[in-house]
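User: My instructor asked us to take a sequence, write out its structure as tokens, and then describe one feature of it. I'm not sure where to start. Here is the sequence I was given:
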Amino acid sequence: MSVAQGRGRLLVFPDPDSVARAAAQDFARRAADAVAERGRFMVALSGGRTPRRLYALLANEPYRKAVPWDRTHLFWGDERYVPPDDPQSNYRMVREALLSRIVIPEANVHRVLAELPDAAEAAGRYEIELRESFGTPFGQTPRFDLVYLGLGPEGHTASLFPGTTALKIRDRLVVATWVDKLETFRITMTYPLFAEARAVVFLVEGGEKADILSLVRNPETASEYPAGQVEPRDGELLWFADRAAAGQGSA
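Assistant: Let's start with the prediction itself. The structure tokens for your sequence are:
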């Protein structure tokens, strides 16, 4: 079911498995369209538990063979400041769920070098990686075909947390940001990248997200939360949610 009221378009599905299936179908469709129109499919992935189901589906048929993985480039919207083999690593999660089970050129997998001793250097290198991969000079912003984002209970998305300096950055594409509540750095893409995306898809599950999902979709309260400030300039803003997250009862 599609709900038009509020910021973006809310697509409601019966349960988390249905969310993942719908997202996988959407991914495959966008991949085919992007490759047909522009020769490649550029995607920013989200970490965390919610998208893991989606990645596992993409690693199986029909998507494993149907998606043009040789023309698909994968990036990370944010990364924990840990080595790639750390259990907390977003890259490791995607590697286990998806990358280890498909055939994709190594050059198409663009991970954050979060093992570097300086988080700011890791962020700076990732911005360079972005620009070189897209062929985008300074002064212009790369345009992703698809960006996946999650929604935290306090309204954070990627690693844009309430009260952090990253929320105000407009002249960099990737930054290292200190998160007091976690007592660690995170490396995150910034709003300008999300604003230029052709499509931003939030994946949201669980009744504990119902209140915050309502708030970040409400034009009157959205700006109070990091996730509510994500606004594609001329792209799509979509929310894939199960019934519980949409406030329509248990999933």
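For the description part of your assignment, you could build on this observation: The first strand starts at residue 2 and ends at 3. Try explaining in your own words what that tells you about the chain.
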